[in-house]
Design brief:
The protein is of the alpha/beta class. Helix content is about 30%, strand content about 25%. The chain is globular.
């Protein structure tokens, strides 16, 4: 591979931004400095250079739902959104709950144009698989029902499996909602013929998330494992995280749709805004932003969950849950930077450095000599609307369609290869990531 020099960039490092060049050789960052030279010159003319984003929570629907998304379309959407690496969730059909099924999924992932890893699924009966599976980002536990068939409710089983993960130093990622509460409230609301979109938020209230979060973090403290709470959406979960972070191994994420949409958006979006966990109040949203700023929430991940529009437009109880987000996460955050809600250093930390640290991903997450040359070039002055017909995701829609955002990725580089270039996806062979906890 020829040397590549990124010239005249504003390079976003963990604690500061500097002006300079980046020398890339054999897919790695070799040097950061000024007046560097090499075989191929890419002059970014003062644009900002971020570490390539790591989206630690995506659903690519393959196998079992490739009409909604596949590894090529999903990874293309990732690249267009400045994401150079994804970690894919296990609730495909069939779910990824055995080593054999994980290896089958690896075959689909060979079509990815960005780098990738996998979360493994916990079931009520696969503890032996948890004792031997390797090469995974985490084991995912679904405490509440969502897309797919994975569900673990029993505290006894949860604790037993968390103990296995503690001994192996593998994180648990958790969808924390109380299934018993959801089932009771859903039946109650449906019996009164509620069909408005906001009824879905009432069926999965703040208390449902808070009860499940408190329960899993209490078990985590006893088991001694590391638990990562997915898509934190309520002020109560933030409070609970604040309590447990002091004496347990805990991390967490927020999703863009909870940071930039609320229950009020049901009025315009209807069932298209249906997600698990559901839309929350402005008060909850404010608590999420505060938690991101003070470090209670560690990272942002999309929970990219594509569904075709014809199914999203069914009734509130029948429509599937989830929204796509890979192509809009970074523009939303860059727009927030332009409105002084965030700094670029915080964006880099929340979307690259912290995901790499939490999941022990080798040589990714920072612009640093010896690390993979995963870079995202952004134009902070570029303003345009989100347009459905220009998206790369196969589901071809966004809940943010029509929203004008200032600040967009213009190039995405994966191990020194320019994969996304101002609207074009270039050929690239994504590679599976490695983890520091495995030999």
């Amino acid at each position: 591979m020829s040397e590549l020099v990124i010239k005249n960039g504003k390079i976003v490092l963990p604690e500061r931004t500097i002006s300079g060049d980046i020398l890339i050789a054999e897919g790695k960052i070799e040097k950061i400095g000024k007046n560097l030279s090499g075989g191929i010159i890419l002059d970014v003319k003062g644009k900002y250079v971020l570490p390539g984003l790591i989206d630690a929570h995506v659903h690519f629907r393959e196998p079992g739902g490739s009409n909604k998304e596949d590894w090529f379309t999903g990874s293309s959407a990732a690249a267009a959104g400045g994401v150079s690496c994804v970690l894919e969730m296990p609730n495909t059909q069939p779910p990824t709950v055995t080593g054999e099924l994980l290896n089958e999924k690896r075959k689909y992932a060979r079509r990815s144009v960005v780098d990738y890893g996998f979360h493994f699924g916990a079931s009520t009966s696969n503890i032996d698989e948890l004792r031997r599976v390797e090469g995974i980002a985490s084991v995912k536990f679904y405490m509440g029902s969502t897309t797919g068939s994975l569900l673990v409710e029993s505290d006894a089983i949860l604790y037993e499996q968390l103990r296995v993960l503690a001994k192996r130093n593998i994180p648990a990622t958790v969808h924390a909602e109380s299934e018993r509460m959801i089932s009771y409230l859903t039946n109650k609301l449906r019996s009164t013929c509620r069909i408005d979109a906001e009824a879905y938020s009432e069926a999965r209230p703040n208390m449902s998330a808070a009860e499940a979060a408190n329960r899993i973090l209490s078990l985590t403290k006893l088991a001694g494992n590391h638990t990562h709470l997915c898509h934190v959406s309520t002020k109560e979960e933030v409070d609970i995280l604040g309590i447990y972070r002091a004496n347990a191994q805990v991390s967490s994420e927020a999703a863009p749709h909870h940071l930039f949409l609320t229950k009020k958006d049901y009025k315009e979006l209807g069932t298209r805004a249906k997600t698990n966990p559901p839309m929350r109040s402005k008060e909850d949203q404010d608590a999420l932003w505060k938690a991101l700023m003070n470090g209670t929430i560690d990272m942002i991940a999309t929970d990219h969950a594509p569904h075709l529009l014809d199914s999203k437009d069914w009734g509130i109880w029948e429509a599937p849950s989830g929204v796509p987000g890979l192509e809009t996460m970074l523009p939303l955050l860059l727009d927030a930077v332009n409105h002084d809600r965030l700094t670029l250093e915080q964006v880099a930390r929340l979307t690259a450095e912290n995901p790499a640290r939490i999941f022990s991903i080798k040589n990714k997450g920072q612009i640093k000599a010896g690390y993979d040359a995963d870079l995202t070039i952004v134009d902070m002055s570029l303003a345009k609307k989100v347009e459905n017909d220009k998206l790369f995701t196969k589901c071809a829609w966004s809940p943010f369609a029509g929203r004008k955002l200032k600040g967009w990725p213009v190039k995405t580089i994966v191990r020194g290869n320019v994969v996304y270039d101002e609207g074009t996806i270039n050929k690239n062979k994504g590679e599976e990531v490695r983890y520091d906890r495995f030999s």
